[in-house]
Amino acid sequence: MVQERSGIVVGLNSGRKTTALNTPKTRISRSVGKSSRRTAFVREIAAEVVGLAPYERRIIELLRNAQDKRARKLAKKRLGTFGRGKAKVEAMQKVIAEARRTQTAH
């Protein structure tokens, strides 16, 4: 990002004050990896149809037995990074909460 000129002859922001003619578009490389609404929707339906992966079921089982640390460790081993593992454990906790909500509704 270009800083606005100061109007002073010397210094970091030297030069006459001008209005910016064009602001560059954000680069595609900045938005890579961002999930679109359509993709998220398709993945949600696929997960609903197919169900959970075996390691996800194991994580849920560990969470139900109050072994949060072990669950995070398993998720990290399967997914590669601590951040991804943590996010997966959060998602599985939401799945458990949703299952409880549907059980109490019936």
Automatic annotation (TrEMBL):
Gene3D superfamilies: 60S ribosomal protein L36 (1.10.10.1760). PROSITE patterns: RIBOSOMAL_L36E. One of its GO terms (biological process) is translation. GO terms for molecular function: structural constituent of ribosome. Keywords: Ribonucleoprotein, Ribosomal protein. Pfam families: Ribosomal_L36e. GO terms for cellular component: ribonucleoprotein complex; ribosome. Transmembrane segments: none annotated. Belongs to the eukaryotic ribosomal protein eL36 family. This is 60S ribosomal protein L36.
